[in-house]
Amino acid sequence: MLRAMMTATAADYLWFQQRFPELASAYCITLVRDVAPAELLHRLDGQEQPTVTSLDAIVRAAVALGDSRRGADQLVAMTRVGSWTLMIEPNGSLGVTEEIAGPASTGTRWVSHYHRVNDVDTFLDYTDTAMQTIFESPVSEHGLGGTPAEITASLQEMGFNFGDPLPETDLSAPAAFALAEVLTGVKLTPNLLDQATFYCGTCPPPPVRRVWPAELTS
Questions:
Q1: Omega within 30 of 0 (cis) for the link into 103
Q2: Residue 217 — very low, low, confident or very high, per pLDDT cuts 50/70/90?
């Protein structure tokens, strides 16, 4: 089924690192269906902050927050893309923290991916508090919870790496953008991210340790 749906690959999102290198070094990107930015911020126990335009402005706001006395808070920036809200966290991981994403996904679809240089990437998908998918990259078949070979092959075609040794160029981060597009139908572009107005807020930081579901780690 995933292969039949697959219309995007890592190659379609190589521009993100090239166009937004500061953000691309550490971010979490989440798509939430039919939940307005203000409601999403409420679900995250956040406080509203001034709006900004463009990803570069989001990075500057995050740096300013880190320099202030509220440095422990996490900046989130949200904008509507059709029926979805796109949430961007510079150097954050709220979107892939199960204790946060699970309850916040009540009545909606929640698709999130996290990347940080020298850290393990994470991809997470919830529907109405029920986890559909969670895996780390480099991906292991064990981490996918014993999913069918067809899905594994589709993820490889999309650009995800499986096991060792890793290739010279790791495409897992752009592949996560592609998988999010396949699952949500939301195609992100440089122009969209550069021209959108983002509703911003600050949220309590996630727990330091992420707890993985027993059924995927046993």
A1: no
A2: very low
Give me 146's structure tokens. Answer: 């014993």
Residue 67 has pLDDT above 90, yes or no: no
pLDDT above 70 for 14: yes
The pLDDT value given to residue 177: 96
Cβ contacts of 82-86, under 8 Å, gap ≥ 24: 82/185, 82/186, 83/33, 83/34, 84/31, 84/32, 84/33, 84/34, 84/184, 84/186, 85/31, 85/32, 85/35, 85/36, 85/37, 85/40, 86/29, 86/30, 86/31, 86/186, 86/188, 86/196
Could you tell me the two tokens for 46?
Answer: 């956040």
Task: Encode pLDDT of 153-188 as tens digits.
Answer: 778 788 887 665 566 678 889 999 999 999 999 999
Q: Phi first, then psi: what are they for 156, rounded to 5°?
A: -65, -40
**pLDDT of amino acid 209:** 45
Q: Look at strands 47-53 and 197-203 and give their pairing.
A: antiparallel
What Å distances lie between residue 51 and 136, 143, 185, CA to CA?
32, 38, 26
Q: Closest Cα to residue 77, out of 62, 96, 93, 99?
A: 62
At residue 22's C-alpha, the angle toward residues 158 and 122, to 5°, is: 40
